[in-house]
Structure prediction request, 181 residues.
Amino acid sequence: MQVTSTYKYARISAFKAREVTREIQGHSASEALDLLTFSPKKAALLVKKTLKSAIANAENNAELRVDTLLVKEAVVGEGPTFKRFRARARGSASPLRKRTSHIRIVLSDELVPEAPAKRAKKKRQTSRAGAAAQAGRAKRDSGKAPITGQASSEKSAPTIVEEPTGSSEPTSETTPTAEKE
Prediction:
């Protein structure tokens, strides 16, 4: 069963209130109250008031247990905007918009389906300008000689270094100190 509570004409912009309601969706009612209690935002107080009202509606009107309630929906819609003016320099005025919102919370005692799997990140598509610059760099770099100790005109066969077979420890005959004596 679902229980709804609505706070109409809340004196906060819907944009600011949506930030708080996104945090509580899908949580249990008690977890949502804890989140709202420790949130420093003004919208948290208004949403908390609405959530408490929804919990009271569930207990008294629908006779549901509080510990089984989940926040199924927490929606914030725009309300009417109060239009005012502020006096400015040289007799002019600038508009002020005092926005309001309608906060609606739906609680449910039904089991919520598991959280949806996280979406895989999309690979960034380069713009045409970026792709052209990358192709230009590849074309420019392909004509350059590899960075080595030799000049590009000297082409020689690669040198192969053979490692001595047997023990990895050098013998006294091959050490430089033995050759000096």
